[in-house]
Inverse folding.
């Protein structure tokens, strides 16, 4: 997993609203992520101040 590439994309998406949807995040991540990679990703998102928004909240 290339955390830096995923975070760069997440920053671009979240630039205007400060949020990213779970669907957007899932689309950026490989299917075979290890639990420690997922934990590192969520930590990086929190550190950057990017909030994860549930897709259902949009509907």
């Amino acid at each position: 997993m290339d955390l830096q590439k995923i975070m760069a994309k997440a920053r671009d998406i979240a630039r205007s609203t400060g949020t990213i949807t779970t669907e957007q995040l899932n689309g950026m991540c490989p299917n075979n992520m290890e639990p420690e990679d997922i934990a590192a990703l969520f930590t990086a998102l929190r550190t950057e101040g990017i909030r994860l928004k549930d897709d259902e909240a949009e509907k």
In short: Residues 35-48 form the longest helix (14 residues).
